[in-house]
Amino acid sequence: MGEKLYTVVEDGSIVTPQGFRAGGLHCGLKKTERNDLGLVLCDVPAVSAAVYTTNAFQAAPLKVTRESLVNGSLRAVIVNSGNANACTGKQGEEDAYRMRALTAARFDLAEEDVAVASTGVIGELLKMDRVESGIAALPEQIHPAAEGAEAFSQAILTTDLVKKEACVAVQVGGKTVTIAGAAKGSGMIHPNMATMLGFMTTDATISPDALQQLLRSTTDLTFNMITVDGDTSTNDMLVAMASGLADNDTLTPEHPDWEAFAAGFGYVCQVLAKAIARDGEGANRLIEVRVAGAECDSDAQAIAKTIIGSSLVKSAMFGADANWGRIIAAVGRAGRPVNPETVDIAIGPIAVLEQSRPLPFDEEAALAYLQGDTIHIDVHLHTGSGSAVAWGCDLTYDYVRINAAYRT
């Protein structure tokens, strides 16, 4: 993704871009003492864009956020974890609007300046007394420094084991522009828009249409190419906010530095997407599937996601079993054109199939490779120039244990 076009900011966070502050606290929605209410705040109106879940049952906060984004601008995003506020009817909608109104009043904003996001258990009403108390206490927790970003990142987690952050710097017209992101996601991950919840910040000056188009196209190549369990959440949402405080010439696809900005934006999204796949519920290993030689990119994407989403492939990877038959079976059922006589497959450095014919390979070497924490599966179809990459994780006993007791 054009690594030479941007510089990775190793200690960067969502508050590294100019104009952003963040924070979080524990208000009592989670049974543990982990933070469960967070806020990202921009000091100025930020050009903003979002993509949302394609699940037919969309949580109440998504309706509120769509309304807030009608004019393409935001100042804040209020987020709670521990409760999805999904499938909660009229009361759930009223609660989401109440979260927006309370946040706007507490930070002296217009209501339409505030987006709302929630994640957690579906079908339970928010404990609004706790949410209201939390929002009232938030201003003292909002900081432009690293502790604010840390508190926010912790506030959006549910079954996640680790926070997910990334940040880069890009030169645009001689000005340094920063792009950052934070995300959560561990289970119910098979996005058809974004991730469970994702938040992007940048101090770039960019047109609203350009930001929306970039967000959507980048999502298709990153967040939409991960899967943990094949389930698309009711709450998936990815929001991007641009403060414009880097004071660069307005970015559009015609700008001479657009490629660099898009590459940096794509890098941040890819890091977050891979972190979600690696942190899949109960997962031991990150799996990366690379498909080449398809008739077109969309065919390669469909095949890569079918492989990465196969429970049999994921189980084989958990067992460190080089069972390539499960991989080729997934290729064949993906519903895209393939030539059954021309498929090559390699598991890491070990070629197991050539021109759809099995190759002898060292089982001990394969076992040793598959016991590592990252597994690469390469599939070449030899029918065209289409390619794609997808990410997922192995399927372990712990995934069942975690989800068997999610509500309890």
TrEMBL record:
Active-site residue numbers: T195 (nucleophile)
Presence of the UniProt keyword Transferase in the record: yes
Site (Involved in the stabilization of negative charge on the oxyanion by the formation of the oxyanion hole): T119, G120
GO CC terms: cytoplasm
EC number(s) given by UniProt: 2.3.1.35, 2.3.1.1
Keyword Repeat: no
UniProtKB keywords: Acyltransferase, Amino-acid biosynthesis, Arginine biosynthesis, Autocatalytic cleavage, Cytoplasm, Multifunctional enzyme, Transferase
Pathway assigned to this chain's UniProt record: Amino-acid biosynthesis; L-arginine biosynthesis; N(2)-acetyl-L-ornithine from L-glutamate: step 1/4; Amino-acid biosynthesis; L-arginine biosynthesis; L-ornithine and N-acetyl-L-glutamate from L-glutamate and N(2)-acetyl-L-ornithine (cyclic): step 1/1
Gene Ontology terms: biological process: L-arginine biosynthetic process; ornithine biosynthetic process
Ligand binding (substrate): T158, K184, T195, E281, N403, T408
EC top class, as a word: transferase
Reaction catalyzed: L-glutamate + acetyl-CoA = N-acetyl-L-glutamate + CoA + H(+); N(2)-acetyl-L-ornithine + L-glutamate = N-acetyl-L-glutamate + L-ornithine
Site (Cleavage): A194, T195
Subcellular location: Cytoplasm
A single GO molecular function term of this UniProt record: L-glutamate N-acetyltransferase activity
Major site of localization recorded for this protein: cytoplasm
Subunit structure: Heterotetramer of two alpha and two beta chains.
Family assignment from sequence similarity: Belongs to the ArgJ family.
NCBIfam families, alphabetized: ArgJ, PRK05388.1
Main function: Catalyzes two activities which are involved in the cyclic version of arginine biosynthesis: the synthesis of N-acetylglutamate from glutamate and acetyl-CoA as the acetyl donor, and of ornithine by transacetylation between N(2)-acetylornithine and glutamate.
Record protein name field: Arginine biosynthesis bifunctional protein ArgJ
Origin species: Paenibacillus algicola
Lineage: Bacteria, Bacillati, Bacillota, Bacilli, Bacillales
Gene from which this protein is expressed: argJ
